[in-house]
Amino acid sequence: xxxxxxxxxxxxxxxxxxxxxxxxxxxxxxxxxxxxxxxxxxxxxxxxxxxxxxxxxxxxxxxxxxxxxxxxxxxxxxxxxxxxxxxxxxxxxxxxxxxxxxxxxxxxxxxxxxxxxxxxxxxxxxxxxxxxxxxxxxxxxxxxxxxxxxxxxxxxxxxxxxxxxxxx
Length: 168
Prior knowledge:
Layout: E1 7-9, E2 16-18, E3 23-24, H1 29-32, H2 39-42, E4 43-45, E5 49-54, E6 57-68, E7 77-85, H3 87-94, E8 102-105, E9 121-125, E10 135-138, H4 144-151, H5 155-165
């Protein structure tokens, strides 16, 4: 028996869509913590990269996709998140160089998950196809998000996460 197909109303276009969507966070949390009136002077941001100048220096972030296997379907749930990078790795990524996996801290607080997902340890894996975003692997800890990434979830739980990320 096929699981029921749910629909969702897209926050971007307002249309109703069928099937489980990928969701994502538009900005890293450190960017959002900079007062709006200071962002032009202290930040740079694109859909895939961000820098933030703070009292302790400049910080570098890239956007990637954290994937959670969904048992009832072949495609995982993709969650667009941001991770920190060292300055040299950030520059190599910006230049489109081939890269081995790199360490970073998750700088996205994902709704639905307690305790916070902010500053979980990650590894960014860079695809050969540079048009694709890196995939983000969490350190295998007992944090609920890390457990779900290793063990997978059922479709109902995937929809709970989607609705939380969409603010529904």
